[in-house]
Amino acid sequence: MMKVHLLLKKEDIDKQKMADNKIAVVFDVLLATSTIASALEFGAREVIPVLDGKEAEQEAEGKEKDSFVLVGEYQGTTIDGFLSPNPLELKEKIAGKSVILSTTNGTVALKNSAHAKAVYAASLLNCEAVAKHILKEYQGETIVVVCSGSSNEFNIEDFQGAGCFIDCLIKQFREEFFLTDSAYAAYSFYHGHNQNSVDILKASRVGRMLSKHGFEKEIEFVSQQNIFNKVPMLLDKNRIIAV
Description:
Distance between the termini: 25 Å
Number of strands: 11
Structural class: alpha/beta
Helix content: 25-40%
Low-confidence stretches: none
Shape: globular
Number of helices: 11
Strand content: 15-25%
Oligomer: single chain
Order of helices and strands: EHEHEHEEHEHEHEHEHHHHEE
């Protein structure tokens, strides 16, 4: 029987437990994992998640000038000299390039999950595709759904995305799942609000902050469910490609 567990924030990640044959699925709906799914859908060659701006610049050293873009924010503010990690703004700038991405929460959650057997970046945009891939590739492993959160706090938009993903798993898997209480809570919450993703995202703390800065179109875009088919997977613990 497959088991699904859910972590409410990235600070709950236990690297030792992740290394015990777990499948990690990371959500940062506003915006890192939505940006990663969009970047690969828009033609980026790969996304390289890093912990901060300094690591991003180190990663860029030695690369050809036109082969990459630096994208990142810290605490909601775009890093000087970087592109903003908003999917619609990146759409025409990343085809064929490496996206070196630094965010406050999502890329940190991905890096800290890297000891798992496999790590995926998921969002409302692509959670059905990720669920289908996992059910095809694995049997019997425990799936750990990681809600990135922010500043050691729970974020409701990640909970909504996680619930959508768990719903996709259950709909496609013909056998019984074991859901821990946290996973069941996300699944139940999503079922009560599956038509209201855009309202939930706009009402969230991060959503209100983004709206204040004029990013309502971005919120509406990333609130769409299952419009992308790319499955972003972390390879060699340092780069994400579509599989």
